[in-house]
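Task: sequence in, structure out. Protein: Pentatricopeptide repeat-containing protein.
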Amino acid sequence: MRNVEVSSLRAMSSRRPLLHSKKFLRATHTNSIHSQKLYSDNSQTLTPSFFLLEKILWALKKGQSINTHIFYQLNPSIFTEVLYKCRNDLQMGQRFIDFIALNYPNFQHSSRSLSAAVHVLVRSKRTSDAQALILRMVRRSGASRTEILDSLVESYGNCGSNLHVFDLFIRTYVQARKLRDAVEALRALKRRNICVSINACNSLLGGLVKIGWVDLAREVYVEIVHNRKDLNGYTLNIMVNVFCKDGKIEKAMDFLSEMEERGIFADIVTYNTLINSYCHKGRMKEGFEVMRLMADKGLKPCLLTYNPIVRGLCKKGWYGRAKEVLNEMVQNGLNPDTATYNTLLYECCRKDDVVEAEGTFNEMLHRGAVPDLVSYSTLIGMFSRIGNLDRAMAYFKDMRFNGLIPDNIVYTILIGGFCRIGAIPDAMKIRDQMIENGCLMDVVTFNTILNGLCKEKMLSEADVLFNEMVERGVFPDFCTYTTLINGYCKVGNMNKALELFRSMFQRNLKPDVVTYNTLIDGFCKAGEMERAIDLRDYMISKTIYPNCITYSSLINGFCSNGFLSDAFRMWNEMVDKGIQPTIMTCNSLIKGYCRNGDSGEANEFLKKMKSRGVLPDSITYNTLIHGFVKEENMDKALDLINRMESEGLLPDVITYNVILDGFCRLGQMQGANMIYKKMTDRGITS
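Result:
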């Protein structure tokens, strides 16, 4: 009976006028997956969907193209049924999938229809196409992870598929960077007793480690992976990396022993990971021990073994030992690469060792390692820092000659170098060249130039640059405002400095103790002590507390303006708060005493500061000597010179000139000649 019905259907399918009439199409078209039924409630009556299914299958079996009018009737349910029917004929299933994809690209799939297509493509070994469909499922709006998983599991048996589908499912989540979804999907598969391959598990674990989710990686390992029998070297390396990234190197070593008992042995990647972790923490002894262990296992170290060791040694300042390791690399037939030499270059340049830095750079070239932007910027940075801009520019030109394009960092380093030596026009030339070459100035570049302009007291130019900065859409930061405030304070323009200070609050930038100290020092130097104290009180109200620099500025301000009692009030407040005074603080008070003609009290304060662990310097003694000379107490002045020398501080030209001036004003030429002889004997000329 069934065969008769099918034959009748095939005969009917040739009657085009009926099947393709508008009335028929309207009757059969629907968007609902579940409302489509191949059979009506009366099991003896066939629905139009059954006719459509048979028509599609007949065309596929005969190798004929499917009439495009069918698209108006096709829905996800029929699409799925066609693929179920093609279970034993993968070629036919593939043709159908490809035909729909090509001719009906906007077909509205359901999770179930996409799942069926995925199974067919996986069985046909079209993995990349299958993965593209899974990715489409994952990214479909409204499709939950549970719905996708349910549809894949439901269609698994109907399509005669294999477990590789679920591997692909996990891998796709990982590649789409939906790591949490991947973890939950893996847990759901475990609950359904569906086991994915160890490679899929490794893919997920590796993805979690890559973005730093080491805790979650460890959870997944313990829950799902740990008890598997098919763990491999990749699993081992991933988990060693997990422990190392989490700072638990000892646990990594324990894990290594556990894996060896299970017949899984470390390789060079494992040992390199451990060495890198030890060296990163500065534990060089353990790093070398792992290297020896590696050699005992018959594994030869490579660049990835040596580079962390060189980096770790340089980080600890053991440059000589790092060079020994470099020579060992060469003896073992390895060519140090750019990364190796960059590490050594950085350490030489950090110490401003010009000879060693240039020697390392030349050795780098000799051994065929190609310098990169890091190599050149390191050298340019050193020469800019020590003020040798000619050499800095020579390396800059060499870099460009070798085809390397300078970036913002290189240009900013050069600009900073020129600003440091006060060569503002040269700095601006580099800035113009930077813009011409398509490099956008960032906040660091602007701040560097602003700092140079403020140091040279070119405040009007700094103001123009600040406005340009804002117009270009570069937002001024904390450093920008502090630099400008300091510049205006240095020239005594406190109103402009305060205007910028208020502007910081408008931009939601919170001034810190450095900003407040800059303004307080500015007010002190301008003699506006009341405003300086008001600002000190205001900063405390903002829970920003004065430090030694704050008190030193206030003490110096009070002393300079003759308010010695107020200066000592600040001193007592500072000491009561447990803030250790500096030599600058003490020198200000000694200077204040001497200005008031009270050198004796200044001398007593010298003892007091020593008792607090603050040792006097040349400025301390010169100030005291000058005070006693003004009081015509030459014996005390000479006594201070002797005391100064006994403490290892050599009198300088200022010291001798003060004493000479005192003797001459008193008409004591014998004493003056004695001091002059002592001065010339020591090679000091006035």
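Confidence is low (pLDDT under 50) at residues 1-46.
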